[in-house]
Amino acid sequence: MERLSSSVQAWVEEHKLATIGGVWATAVGASVAYGRRKSPQMRLIHARLHAQALTLAVLGGAALAHHYYTPNNNKQQQQQDDYDFYSQLPPATNADGEENERWSW
Fold first, then answer.
1. Do 21 and 5 form a contact (C-beta atoms < 8 A)?
2. What are the start and end residues of every segment in region (Disordered) (predicted)?
3. What pLDDT digit, counting tens, does each position of 48-60 carry?
4. Three-class SS of residue 93?
5. d(CA 72, CA 66)
6. pTM higher than the cut 0.85
């Protein structure tokens, strides 16, 4: 069962928008099918309302899952990016200690 759960989780992680769209379509279909005694206009309005609420819940869950499952190496990556940027700049002074033209105002 754990293997199935991990494979489903991997598929959902790779196809986030398709998953959210599928949940939305399922919610609309289930809401329309459930409200048979209402008029067609009211069924569509309620179906959209239920689907939007469920979509917001799924988006919130996706955000939490992304936050929970994403490794927290942003700080280390930021430091590496800063180092890479500053290492590409020319030196402020030349070998004699005089200021380079690029850095003088």
1. no
2. 73-105
3. 888 888 888 888 8
4. strand
5. 11
6. no
